[in-house]
Amino acid sequence: MNAATERSTAELMLTLGFQAKQASAHAAKASAATKNKALRVLARLLREQVGPLQTDNARDLDRARANGLAEPMVDRLKLTPKVLETCAQGCEQLAAMPDIIGEMVGMKQVPSGIRVGQMRVPIGVFGMVFESRPNVTIEAASLAIKSGNACILRGGSEAIESNKALARLVRLALAEAGLPEDTVQLVPTTDRAAVGHLITMPQFVDVIIPRGGKGLIERISAEAKVPVIKHLDGNCHTYVDDPCDVELAVKVTDNAKTQKYSPCNATESLLVARGVAADFLPRIGAVFATKGVEMRGCPESLRLLATVAPAALLKAATEADWSEEYLGPIISVKVVDGVDEAIAHINRYSSHHTEAILTNDHRHAQRFLREVDSASVMVNASTRFADGFEYGLGAEIGISTDKFHARGPVGVEGLTSLKYIVLGEGEVRG
Q1: pLDDT per residue as tens digits for the range 167-218
Q2: What is the greatest pairwise CA distance in the chain?
Q3: pLDDT of res. 326
Q4: CA within 13 Å, CB half, 294
């Protein structure tokens, strides 16, 4: 990159930062009615513009395939009518939710006579760097609007046309509702240097949220000069317990792995209690074999899977497989003694994203919920539910595996902070 290009990128990012800071002051004091109007207008525009949006999206898809992008990654780029309808419903779900900005909690009177509590307030400006999925533009924008924040979005170059088209609709919705259009800004360049500037502008940006591959998130975590809300990867586990409803376990495990391979909440590791392995593994193995899922297993699991699956789909698991996020039709499989070994294995190898136990034993379920150290822990449900929309948050800005501030799917509340407020009647400190 030449000096002139670097200078122009730096100037662009400073301009976006300044505009976001200005807009955030207006967004923070906007009424609930104004914010909800913007969200409902955006939902309407998304439904009205399905055709034009798919035309822009097709340009990204054609370029991605021409560049040899793997099909699971191409799948992430698609703006299907179903994806757009989910975005629209997310906006409406957010609009229907109570406005938590300005909410006062924990008010109590202390011996001095003053009353002390906390008020929920917007964070200010968040920057978001994301790859592939253009629908993230709408998720981030809608959450920024509802939470009274401004945001600067930098999507991946592979989805630039889709992101620009969606960002235009967001700005139209903001303007129609009477909010500053700069409340949501998309970085218009694919220049990678823009990310470096965005994550090092603490004078404008209050938090960075990376959403993408492990390499992107590691880079941002290492280089950012503002706080980062992140998860590095999604090595999610499903554990089939003894006792369990085997029919239920086959249905849920199949969904957790194959409903969609590319999301971070798809199950990548399957643990099976020895007591049900002989019954369960041939049944799930047959399902996986039909769908072309490669199974990388321990010796005991491979012996059982070999009765139903072709040798081409069976491989001996290596130590690395227990930690792997495949994002494709591959799953690691291990037979364990029971719930103790399952919990120990998960806490050692998991990325602390989402884990599920399929069981008929209430005590095992409660132990799993308490002892598994992950952002989402489930009983008798597919890991694919680990999602802000499915959790009733309207949308999510990402899924955090950090343990401070926000953990799990980050919705409106995760984009706010608390400040102490004090109410007095002339008290002075003695």
Answers
A1: 999 999 999 999 999 999 999 998 889 999 999 999 999 999 998 777 888 8
A2: 81
A3: 94
A4: 11
* Residue range 2-50, pLDDT digits in tens: 666 667 999 999 999 999 999 999 999 999 999 999 999 999 999 999 9
3-state secondary structure the chain: CCHHHHHHHHHHHHHHHHHHHHHHHHHHCCCHHHHHHHHHHHHHHHHHCHHHHHHHHHHHHHHHHHCCCCHHHHHHHCCCHHHHHHHHHHHHHHHHCCCCCCCEEEEEECCCCCEEEEEEEECCEEEEEECCCCHHHHHHHHHHHHHCCEEEEECCHHHHHHHHHHHHHHHHHHHHHCCCHHHEEECCCCCCHHHHHHCCCCCCCCEEEEECCHHHHHHHHHHCCCCECCCCCCCEEEEECCCCCHHHHHHHHHHHHHCCCCCCCCEEEEEEEHHHHHHHHHHHHHHHHHCCCEEEECHHHHHHHCCCCCHHHEEECCHHHHHCCCCCCEEEEEEECCHHHHHHHHHHHCCCCEEEEECCCHHHHHHHHHHCCCCEEEECCCHHHCCCCCCCCCCCCCEECCCCCCCEECCCHHHEEEEEEEECCCCCCC
Give the separation between CA 295 and CA 306, rounded to whole angstroms. Answer: 10
| 288 touches 257 (CB < 8 A) | yes
Two tokens at 23? 């807009």
Written as six digits, the tokens of 397 are 């800005």
Question: In this structure, are residues 197 and 178 in contact, taking their beta carbons and an 8 Å threshold?
Answer: no
What domains are defined for the chain? 3-228 (3.40.605.10), 236-385 (3.40.309.10)
